[in-house]
Structures are given as structure tokens and as C-alpha cells.
Design goal:
This protein has 14 helices and 22 strands. By secondary structure, the chain is an alpha+beta fold. An eight-stranded antiparallel beta sheet has the order 8-9-10-11-19-16-15-14. Strand 21 and strand 22 form a beta hairpin. Helix 8 (217-233) packs antiparallel against helix 9 (242-255). The mean pLDDT is 96.
């Protein structure tokens, strides 16, 4: 694919960057284009950038502040990375915006920081950007403007934030206040840093607040802000805390390259995906904090590959703007707090520009990603995930047995306690059994397949499917992961237990389910949703179904055991405007006959591949034997697995 010409990029360098062709100059040119594109949307004093698009629930003024703050972070990377040698208009715009935004008489003043307000998020970006550009912006501000900025940031002091990554916004902002001699609360900083210790679960992983909240916030927030705080606190000012943060980030980065496909795409999972290449923040921070286990050439290949991936697919768009979506605008993948400038948290993906041009991450030759060298299997017990990548097609798939974005389960109250008590609605970006670098879940409210793709459901007589709300991990090691969840049907108070074990083998995921169900319930399971500008091809047969895009990405499900739906047992569901990857989507699925009451076992082979897939042949690729509570899987290469 070719990068859009409106970015005005320099020629590629295939000697230094044999994989992507991109150099630091490409990063600088992309940043410049994104910053220049914002100016038509600035208020007269440059305190707000009011971009086109759907507004957030916080209102137009907050959205305008968001445009300033998040793009200021991008400008800070560009200014500081160039040692101030940028177009003077860039620094002047943001200096003027700071003056107008903190002046109540300007007509474009920022809202005051109040408890749990959106302004707290944006204030953290302002504080970090001010620190990184201190010699070029803060130190040159009029003393009265400095006082007003400090007064605005002081709304954090003694304030209440949401009890998740927001605690860190208070930490970095008050540390900046301390660095400029303004009033601050040391206990706010210490309490915020102490709180994240409760959320560290090992192997480099945090959960974002209490519960099993695993997504990209772990990298672009939980790892990022503690080390940004350490940069503001300065040498000796961290009380020894940063050693632990550096060690944890280093451990996290050992596995992180396995989340990226050969085409540069990150796995599509979790919320706030409109931040896109903000997923690169922990990679760059590892280099900035000198704690990365990744070779310099791998760091740049991963980062440049991801940025180029989006540039090749129209991000930023022809106006130079980031929209609310993944490639194009796609609102079902956003949250109510997302406004038109929210995607500019992607600025965190440019932190590498803070490294000098002669740093080895910019001068070393690119190295291949793990998926470019071999098939990979990565077990991540902390979040309950398996990653598997296949070298021949460059795809990475994530099997989810641990992240549900729900609060922790209340203490059990006996054998009949409700396992979903206190859980919210299932979110398609967390509740699915699998995600990948080439697919997205069906997420539009109108989508027929929203409850089908990568989900095993019990169907009530009226067709209502059960949900996968709270996920209870059971196992995650080597190539096997397992969990259970509760299934409910309308008018039935009983919580039916569904246990699922995923076994990886090459490009395949074999799912073994043990499902409890009432009399007459139907069991249904879907594979990955594939999407494209053209309607995908679909085909099905006895206990198998397949969908394939015009570019050859194929999703298939093959029933290996327990699927006895007859002529109605396999099909492909289609939807329109329901998937972030394209306007036409399709999901293959299997459907059983009505079940007798009690437990049943179902074994499914799930395929996502760029190969040509032959479902009938795959039926013989795995021999399944069920003996009581044990399922044995025997593969053609001699490998056997007991579930």
C-alpha cells in the first residue's frame, strides 16, 4: 500500500530501514503535518482547537481544551526533540494558548479543574508538555501567565480523581507544580503512586483500576505516567520508586512486540482504540528510561511499522486530522467521553522524538518483528491471554481468557452466589474469546452479529443469546488457556456455567467447551468477523462455515465434536456499517440442535488466515476423543493435548 501524498514525506531509506523504509525524518514530517492541520480549527487566542466531529459528553469547551492539550503533547515532542529548532510559529501558538486558556477575560478560558472532571485528563498533558518544553515555552512565559497556569493546575491539589489511571494525572501535574515552586500536595503524589501498587499483578502487568481491566491503557497510562513523573521529579527526586517502574516496564516490553502483526497493526482490543499509535508509548518510554530489553533496531521497526500502517490506510486523513475511529470514522468503537480531539492522545506515540537524532534507535538498522521470524506462541498469565502469530501471513491473534473490564466479583456468599453480581454489560472489545491484528469485533448496536463473533452463547427459545460478562480465569500456560463464565437466559434465574479451553496449534485455535444448559436451549458459536469495502464471500456445509474478504483474509469455524445442527447447523451472518475494518462484514458460526438439560461438550476449530482454507479437510486435521470429563486432541504432527 502507498502512503497518502498529503503527508509530504521524504523518500524511504531501505538501507537503514529495510522493513519500513521510514526514518526520523518521516516521523517529523508526519508530526508537522498533523500540527499544521489543526490551525484552521483554533480559537482566536489558540487556547482551544474545536475540531469537526461528534462532541463528547463534556461539552464543546472541554472538547476544545482537549484539542489544545493533546496536540500540545505532540508539539512538545517535536519542539524538544529538535532542541527548539522548529518553526517559531509552533512555540508561539502554544505559548499564546496557555495565556488565553488561563485568562478568564479571554473568551476562550479553560474550565476549572473540579473533582473527576475531564479537565484533569487534559491538565496532565499540559503539565507533561510544559516540562518537556521548559526552556522554550515555560521559561519564556510572562510571570503573570506562569502564575495563572500554576493556579489552573492547582485545581488538582486535594482533588478527587477516578480510582484508576486518573490517579496518575494528579501525580504528574502536581509534580510539575512542585518543580516550579507552586503549592502542591506531597500526599496527593505519594498516595497516587501507592495506589497503583494495588493494581500491579506481576510479569510487567497492571490492571487499570480494580478488576480485570487489561488493555492498551496498561502501556499508554499505567507504565507511561510513573516514568514521566520520574522525569519531572528529576535525578534523586523519585524516592527510589523509578527503579521498580523501570524493571516492570522492561518486563512488559519483553512480550509487547508479540502484539503487532507484520503489517504493523496492533491487536484490535480494548477501549479508546481511536488513540491508535498511542500504543507505541511504552516502546518509546522503554528507550527514554533506558530500561528496554528490545534492540534499538527492533524498537524503531515496531514503532515505524505501526505508524506507517495507519498512514497507508488514511490516518491522518486528507485534511491531516485524526478522526474518531480506527482507519475511517467509526463511532461504535468509541466511548461517550470521546470528543473530536480525543484521538490526539495518539501524540504519545511520538515520544521517540524526545530521543536525540543520533540515538541508536534512530541510527541502528531495523530488525524484524517476532512474527516476521517464526510462528510465535506467548502465554500471558497475568491478563489471561494467549498470543499466537504466524510468519507466513503475518497475523497475530489474541485469545482472551482474562480481561472483561468489569469490577471485581464481590466476596462469595455460598455455592449459589451470583458470579456476575456487580458486573456491567458485556463490551464487545473485552468480552470476546479472540481478537487479532486484522479483525475487529462487531460493535454497532444494530449489528445482527454483535452477539455472534468469537462468542459461545446459549440461545433461548426466542433467540435471545446469553452474554459473557465476568470472565473467571482457570489456566494460562504454554499454548493452552481456560476460563469460565456464567450464562443466563430470559425468565430463568439460574446461572449456567460455560467452561472454555483454547488450545493453539499453528494458525488454529481449538476451543473445547463444556456448557450447562436448560432443556431445549441451543448452543451457538461464532468465529472472527472479517470486514472489507466489498461484501465478503461466504460458504457453509455440514458443521462448517467460512467467510473470506476480497483480499483473501479468511475466517472459518469447523465443528469437530458436539455440533449436530443438521442443515441449519452452520451459516454466515452478515452486517453493514458494524465493523471498524470495513462497511461489509461477515461472521461464520455453528449452531447446535436443541439440547437436553444438563452438560454438553462442544469442540470447534477456529481459523483466521490469509491461506486458502478447506474446511472439509480441516475436519480430519484433529482427532477428538471425549471420555467423561476429559477431551483428548490428537494433531497430524503427533502432538496430543488433554483438556
Amino acid at each position: 500500500m502507498s502512503v497518502a501524498p498529503h503527508l509530504h514525506l521524504p523518500p524511504t531509506d531501505r538501507i537503514l530501514s529495510s522493513r519500513t523504509g521510514w526514518t526520523r525524518a518521516h516521523w517529523e514530517a508526519t508530526a508537522d503535518r498533523m500540527l499544521d492541520a489543526l490551525t484552521p480549527y483554533a480559537t482566536p487566542g489558540f487556547a482551544q482547537y474545536r475540531l469537526p466531529g461528534r462532541g463528547s459528553w463534556s461539552g464543546v469547551v472541554s472538547d476544545g481544551l482537549e484539542g489544545f492539550a493533546r496536540s500540545f503533547l505532540l508539539a512538545a515532542c517535536r519542539i524538544a526533540g529538535a532542541g527548539g529548532a522548529v518553526d517559531p510559529a509552533l512555540t508561539e501558538r502554544y505559548a499564546a494558548g496557555l495565556a488565553a486558556g488561563t485568562d478568564p477575560a479571554s473568551g476562550e478560558a479553560w474550565p476549572r479543574l473540579t473533582d473527576c472532571s475531564q479537565q484533569m485528563v487534559e491538565a496532565a498533558s499540559v503539565a507533561v508538555a510544559l516540562h518537556e518544553t521548559r526552556p522554550w515555552i515555560w521559561d519564556r512565559l510572562d510571570a503573570r501567565v506562569q502564575e495563572r497556569v500554576a493556579d489552573w493546575l492547582s485545581g488538582f491539589v486535594g482533588g478527587r480523581t477516578w480510582d484508576n489511571n486518573w490517579r496518575l494525572f494528579q501525580v504528574v501535574s502536581e509534580q510539575f507544580l512542585a518543580s516550579v515552586g507552586a503549592p502542591y500536595s506531597r500526599s496527593d503524589i505519594e498516595n497516587g503512586l501507592d495506589r497503583i501498587e494495588d493494581w500491579y499483578v506481576g510479569d510487567g502487568w497492571y490492571t487499570d483500576g480494580s478488576g480485570r481491566n487489561f488493555d492498551y491503557y496498561i502501556g499508554w497510562a499505567m507504565h507511561l505516567y510513573p516514568l514521566l513523573w520520574a522525569r519531572i521529579a528529576g535525578p534523586g527526586g523519585d524516592g527510589g520508586r523509578s527503579a521498580a517502574y523501570r524493571q516492570r516496564l522492561g518486563r512488559f516490553l519483553e512480550d509487547y512486540p508479540h502484539f503487532f502483526g507484520a503489517d504493523g497493526s496492533p491487536v484490535h482490543q480494548g477501549r479508546s482504540l481511536c488513540y491508535r499509535f498511542a500504543a507505541l508509548a511504552p516502546v518509546w518510554m522503554g528507550a527514554l528510561a533506558d530500561c528496554t530489553p528490545l534492540a534499538p533496531g527492533l524498537t524503531r521497526r515496531l514503532a515505524s511499522g505501526a505508524l506507517r500502517h495507519f498512514a497507508e490506510r488514511g490516518v491522518p486523513d486528507e485534511r491531516g486530522l485524526l478522526t474518531l475511529g480506527w482507519y475511517d470514522t467509526f463511532l461504535p468503537a468509541t466511548q461517550p467521553y470521546s470528543g473530536p480531539a480525543s484521538p490526539y492522545w495518539a501524540s504519545k506515540g511520538f515520544l521517540g522524538l524526545l530521543l536525540p537524532a543520533d540515538h541508536e534507535v534512530w541510527t541502528a538498522r531495523e530488525l524484524p518483528l517476532p512474527v516476521e521470524e517464526s510462528d510465535t506462541y506467548t502465554a500471558l498469565p497475568a491478563p489471561g491471554w494467549l498470543l499466537h502469530g504466524t510468519r507466513h501471513d503475518g497475523l497475530v491473534r489474541l485469545v482472551n481468557h482474562g480481561s472483561d473490564h468489569n469490577p471485581p466479583a464481590p466476596d462469595a456468599e455460598g455455592p449459589d452466589a451470583d458470579p456476575d453480581r456487580g458486573a456491567g454489560e458485556d463490551d464487545p472489545h473485552y468480552a470476546k474469546l479472540a481478537y487479532s491484528t486484522a479483525t475487529a469485533p462487531e460493535s454497532a448496536p444494530h449489528a445482527h452479529a454483535r452477539d455472534i463473533d468469537n462468542h459461545l452463547a446459549l440461545l433461548a427459545p426466542d433467540g435471545t443469546p446469553s452474554r459473557r460478562r465476568r470472565i473467571h480465569p482457570l489456566r494460562c500456560e504454554d499454548r493452552v488457556a481456560a476460563s469460565w463464565s456464567a450464562a443466563r437466559l430470559p425468565g430463568d434465574e439460574h446461572a449456567y456455567r460455560i467452561e472454555t479451553t483454547s488450545v493453539l496449534h499453528g494458525p488454529w485455535e481449538i476451543r473445547v467447551h463444556r456448557a450447562e444448559a436448560p432443556e431445549g436451549a441451543v448452543v451457538r458459536e461464532g468465529g472472527h468477523a472479517v470486514a472489507h469495502p466489498q461484501s465478503p464471500y461466504a460458504s457453509s456445509g455440514p458443521d462448517w462455515a467460512l467467510a473470506r474478504t476480497a483480499e483473501g483474509l479468511t475466517s472459518a469455524v469447523v465443528g469437530l465434536y458436539g455440533w449436530d445442527g443438521g442443515a441449519e447447523g452452520a451459516a454466515v451472518a452478515r452486517d453493514v456499517e458494524s465493523n471498524a475494518y470495513g462497511p461489509h462484514s461477515a461472521v461464520p458460526y455453528l449452531r447446535s440442535a436443541p439440547r437436553p438439560a444438563g452438560r454438553s461438550v462442544h469442540v470447534t476449530l477456529v481459523v483466521l488466515s490469509r491461506d486458502h482454507v478447506h474446511p472439509e479437510a480441516l475436519r480430519t486435521a484433529v482427532r477428538v476423543r471425549v471420555d467423561g470429563d476429559t477431551v483428548s486432541l490428537a494433531f497430524l504432527d503427533g502432538r496430543t493435548v488433554e483438556v
